[in-house]
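Budget justification aside, the reviewers requested a transparent look at the raw inputs and outputs of the sequence design task funded under Objective 1. We therefore reproduce one unedited record. The lines immediately below are the structure tokens for a 290-residue chain.
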């Protein structure tokens, strides 16, 4: 596909291939060249930040931050309060414009030149700390609405898509382990279940890169481990960046070989396996304590 490499679809099957083709031609005819779901990862990198700086009233929240995420990688980011982790996600998703630096999705998409909705359509899904689900609607409908939000102007094709859409919803329910709760109102779910539902809603939009900001906050130990299992299952189907303070959760995601980035004062303080960064003197001083 023009030298582009597609990441695997999270669900191995993409009922919207046809619709996306139409989207591409529709969008192209309006003078844009962004192809939904297609990111050039031919060099193996899905996200690239170089010397990114952001100041708020003279305070440097990000200070020449540089990091790269491999396609398919699950990267954990840790660091003290105020290190700039959330600000980094704000920059990646277009919520905050950096004062300087490069931010690229794949080889070709300059995120500093794109707005929030365009970045979301290009394949970046973001999970905020607080779950935002439609409490008054059943779980099933939450997933359906998430899909419609993505394909809004394809409503006319719905009749044809319905059967595939249903299959996609069922697959997602299985991934987030909410099959038996499909008919319950989202408002009745536990905090951990709501968090999983929101991840399911993001998956309905087929993200290539998922950003999760403290997804385990406020969860019980069991819910936290269930979330780790879910994210580990998504490995390889989309790239992920997970910001988290809970070290057991980070250990469950990083394993022995996964790379962990430690941020402090707006830049990368250390980088390596969890064991390596835990032994790093500067990390012990500024974050983990003795
Ligand atoms: N919109 C803003 N206006 C002014 N200052 C801000 C703004 N957003 C963030 N900051 C400041 O930038 C710094 C980095 O904040 P950020 O929220 O990115 O840190 P964080 O690493 O996510 O911390 P935490 O672990 O507590 O979530 C903090 O000192 C914060 O007060
Ligand atoms: Mg934060």
């Amino acid at each position: 596909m023009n030298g582009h490499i597609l990441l695997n679809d999270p669900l191995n099957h993409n009922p919207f291939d046809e619709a996306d083709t139409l989207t591409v031609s529709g969008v192209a005819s309006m003078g844009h060249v962004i192809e939904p779901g297609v990111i050039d990862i031919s060099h193996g990198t899905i996200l690239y930040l170089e010397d990114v700086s952001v100041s708020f009233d003279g305070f440097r929240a990000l200070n020449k931050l540089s990091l790269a995420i491999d396609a398919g990688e699950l990267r954990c980011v840790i660091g003290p309060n105020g290190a700039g982790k959330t600000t980094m996600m704000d920059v990646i998703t277009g919520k905050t414009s950096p004062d300087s630096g490069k931010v690229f999705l794949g080889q070709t998409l300059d995120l500093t030149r794109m707005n929030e909705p365009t970045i979301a359509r290009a394949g970046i899904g973001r999970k905020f700390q607080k779950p935002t689900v439609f409490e008054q609607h059943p779980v099933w409908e939450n997933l359906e609405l998430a899909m419609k939000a993505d394909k809004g102007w394809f409503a006319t094709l719905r009749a044809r898509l319905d059967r595939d859409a249903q299959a996609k919803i069922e697959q997602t329910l299985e991934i987030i382990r909410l099959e038996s709760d499909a008919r319950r109102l989202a408002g009745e779910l536990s905090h951990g279940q709501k968090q999983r539902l929101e991840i399911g809603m993001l998956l309905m939009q087929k993200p290539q890169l998922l950003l999760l900001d403290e997804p385990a906050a406020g969860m019980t130990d069991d819910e936290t481990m269930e979330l780790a299992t879910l994210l580990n299952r998504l490995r390889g189907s989309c790239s992920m960046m997970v910001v988290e303070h809970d070290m057991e959760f980070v250990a469950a995601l990083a394993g022995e070989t996964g790379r962990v980035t430690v941020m402090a004062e707006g830049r990368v303080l250390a980088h390596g396996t969890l064991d390596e960064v835990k032994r790093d003197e500067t990390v012990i001083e500024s974050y983990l304590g003795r």
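The two ends are 52 Å apart (CA to CA). Confidence is low (pLDDT under 50) at residues 1-34. Computational costs for records of this kind are itemized in the attached budget.
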